[in-house]
Amino acid sequence: MKVLLHWRMVLQSCSLCINMLLWLDSVPTLTMLTILRTFLDQKEHAKGQLLMLHGNTHRPPLIHRQLDEERVSWLALAWDRQVQVAKLVKSKMIRHKDWKLDSAAVGIAWLNDQMLAVLNLKGQLCLFSKDGSELRRTIFILDGFVFDDSILYHTHFSNRFGNPERHFNNSVAVRGATVYILGPSFLTVSRLLPWKERIEALKMAGDWMGALDMAMKLYDGHTQGVVDLPRTVDSIRGAIMPYLVELLLSYIGYVFEYISIALSNHTGKGGAIDGLIDADRSLLTQREEQYARVGGVAVEFCVHIGRNDILFDTVFSKFVAAQSGGIFLEVLEPYILKDMLGSLPPEIMQALVEHYSGKGWLQRVEQCILHMDISSLDFNQVVRLCREHGLYGALIYLFNQGLNDFRTPLEELLSVIQNATRKDATSTCYRMLVYLKYCFQGLAFPPGHGTIPRAQLHAVRKELLQFMLEDSKMLTSEVFKGFSSSSGKCPNICYLLWMDTEATLEVVKCAFAQENFEPTSSTLDASVSKDEEDTDIESPDSQNILLQSVVDAIIHIVGLENEAIHSVVVGTAESEESELWPSVSDFGHIVEFVSFFVSYKRANASQRVLKHILKYLTSSTTSYDDKKMPPQKEVLQLFNVVPQTDWNSDYVLNLCLDAHFHQACGMIYTARNQNLAALDSYMKDTMEPYHAFIFINKKLLQLASDEALSFRSTVISRFAELVNLSRECAFVLVIDHFHDEIQQ
After folding, report:
1. Per residue in 706-719, pLDDT tens?
2. Per-residue confidence (pLDDT) for residue 503, from 0 to 100
3. Among 135, 313, 341, 336, which Cα is nearest to 227's?
4. What is the pLDDT of residue 552?
5. Residue 170: C-alpha distances to residues 26, 137, 413 (Å)
6. What is the pTM of this model?
7. I need a labelling partner for 67 at 20 to 30 A (CA). Which of 109, 140, 589, 656 fits?
């Protein structure tokens, strides 16, 4: 774009002379030449430059000097294709920048304190910054003229060969933002366009994007090549802001009018949308794309200049008037997800949610809410919209982040589950479980929003667990009636157990279980120390008390304190939709949950509860995978932590014999001091034969006198079986205890 305008003034006489050297301060010319000579004496090419000053065999340098606001004098020199800028600070000349031109200079002048105007032999007028960056370039030779017709020169000086040489002294001058170039018969005036005229020129040329881009650059303070704006960015923004708003609205009006005319010409009905749909659906698609393109430009422009009020008031109103309000709302989505729009006015939020809900885009509008600044929203309005449209992920986010409230979202989700059928409530149930799991693990919900502060984590866990143990207030639900009639009460956790017992218990376990349990007598201390390290404030006693409350509640719901467990019927017995809880697999998950914490000394259980646990673990229905501990290992761990007085050894021994739990049988026999029976049991365990040798080694070290002799004899008599069981272990046993009886 050309920003320099030219016009010609025919002169009555060519005697007009414009002084090319403009001194903007009161320093005498002789003093300046002395300073310049001192400056050049320090350069490697000082001799040649001084010759130019004196007008010897080289072209004299073109010199221009100015004074800026801080009283620092600037000096610009140009000769041949070289430009040099220096500054005078406290009577000391300092080189600032030098650069080369693509054509020899014929004139140089300061256009203001930041720009240099340089004319060259190609007839070009170039604008440079003080740092040598080229800002603009145009041709000052008018059409139909040549170089010699456009600028005045003389040939009073000759070169070393005696040939006259052109000199352009006093042919270029600057006043304000205007450059005057004196020609033989006319004066060429080049004016640097003001910022507003530049944008208007782009508009008139139809380059709206270029005009808006220039406007945004000016707003950012990129004013190189502009001479009619304030110096500070804030002052610039204040000066141009009204025009920026006017420019955007003009652009929108121009494009909307163009679209309307195009549709009118196509349908012949004034651009009616109904007629357009019948006539040509592809044109309707093009119309929507054009409106979306305008909306994107408007959003980016308003966000860039910080005028969201214009965006959501005037601009949105124009789209609504053009029956394209929905398109405008859809345009907002990517900018919200990129965090460029952190808040929306209440009426825009209302329209956005309703528009997206009508199109079935609930997940998309929920993602928009998750990217908004809660403090800038109408909280009550957004909560109401989330409730009405089932945006529970956004609802959790609003309460957690906005009010630091973790309980209310649970109440909201539970209310949905209580008032829906099992099929309809499934998705809400799993959302609730995911929310609980994140909170128990110390993570903020939804995913990707950081963590819960460590100082708050214990209180959050306790609050949520206590809510799950509270009695349900929905007295009319089928789940409440079923659990109440069976166990006498219905805590809130019953709804989750009824929906998915395994998933619910795994989530609850996240509030207490540690990643690494050591099944030893010091397990409790180790896990407690990990808890303290994990939460910083949670005491072992308070955590175990809360865990015991959860375990007791589950035991009571299922009826593990009774001989027969409870069977909960949800729905009427005659109804085909009635369901029985717990199923066999559900009961197994509950028993494994209780057994897990009892075996690690995190919770206590009565004899009757232990009886149910051991009966389940030794039953043929028990199954396990790689993620679970084998049933026999669980039984052994229970034996290690539960006093023998709490379980009937005869009853448990029969269970273990039927289940072929040889290690468990060996442990029971050992507790009864029946060593030979214990040895038989251990030797039957071909999967882990080393237990038999560990038992033998231990007893040989413990027993004395006749018991020791009898036991040694039994081991020797069965040595062939031990060799078959494990040759390596048998060899070590001989070396350690039977080296004197090797032959035998």
Report:
1. 888 888 888 888 88
2. 95
3. 135
4. 94
5. 20, 22, 86
6. 0.68
7. 140
Report how far residue 93's alpha carbon sits from residue 37's, in angstroms, rounded to the nearest whole number.
Answer: 10
Judge whether 81 and 102 are in contact, CB under 8 Å. yes
**Residue 369: closest CA among 389, 388, 343:** 343
Amino acid 38: pLDDT: 37
| CA atoms within 13 A of residue 398's CA, in its CB half-sphere | 24
Q: What's residue 478's pLDDT?
A: 87
- Cα gap 507→632, rounded to integer Å: 25
Domain boundaries, the chain: 1-56+71-192, 665-743
What pLDDT sits at residue 12? 29
Q: Do residues 188 and 181 touch, judged by C-beta distance below 8 A? A: yes
Per-residue DSSP letters for 271-327? T-HHHHHHH-HHHHHHHHHHHHHHHHHHHHHHHHHT-HHHIIIIIHHHHHHTT-HHH
Contact 137, 129 (CB under 8 A): no
Is the Cα dihedral 122, 128, 133, 134 positive or negative? negative
CATH node for 1-56+71-192: 2.40.10.360
* 668's tokens: 């029971």
Distances, alpha carbon 463 to alpha carbons 436, 466, 546, in Å? 11, 5, 11
Mean pLDDT of 513-535: 42
For the purposes of burial, counting CB atoms within 10 Å of the CB of 574, is it exposed (0-12), middle (13-18) or buried (19 or more)?
exposed
Instruction: Identify which has the larger pLDDT, 627 or 35.
Output: 627
CA distance 223 to 229: 8
pLDDT class for 48, splitting at 50, 70, 90? very low
- Cite the DSSP H helix spans in 306-422: 308-310, 316-321, 325-337, 346-358, 362-370, 379-389, 392-397, 403, 407-418
pLDDT exceeds cutoff 60 at 14 = no
pLDDT-based confidence at residue 46 (cuts at 50, 70, 90): very low
Angular region, 352: left φ>0, alpha ψ -120 to 50, beta rest: alpha
Amino acid at site 253: G
**Residues whose CB falls within 8 Å of the CB of residue 613, separated by 6 or more in sequence, listed in order:** 591, 594, 595, 598, 605, 638
- How far is C-alpha 618 from the chain's CA centre? 50
Percent pLDDT > 70 in the chain is: 82
Query: How would you list the strands of the sheet with 62-67, edge to edge?
Result: 62-67, 73-79, 82-89, 92-100
Look at residues 419, 410, 421 and name the one whose alpha carbon lies nearest to residue 469. Answer: 410
Q: Which residue has the higher pLDDT, 708 or 299?
A: 299
CB 535 within 8 A of CB 591: no
Summary mean pLDDT of the chain: 81
* Rounded (5°) CA angle 149-150-155: 70
Task: Provide the phi-psi class of 79: left if phi over 0, else alpha when psi is between -120 and 50, else beta.
Answer: beta
Confidence at residue 13, expressed as pLDDT on a 0 to 100 scale = 29
Write the DSSP assignment of 210-240 as a string of letters: HHHHHHHHHHTT--TT--SS-SSHHHHHHHH
C-alpha span between 431 and 443 (Å, rounded)? 15
**Is 491 in a helix, a strand, or coil?**
strand
Give Rg (Cα) of the chain: 46
In one letter, which amino acid is 68?
D
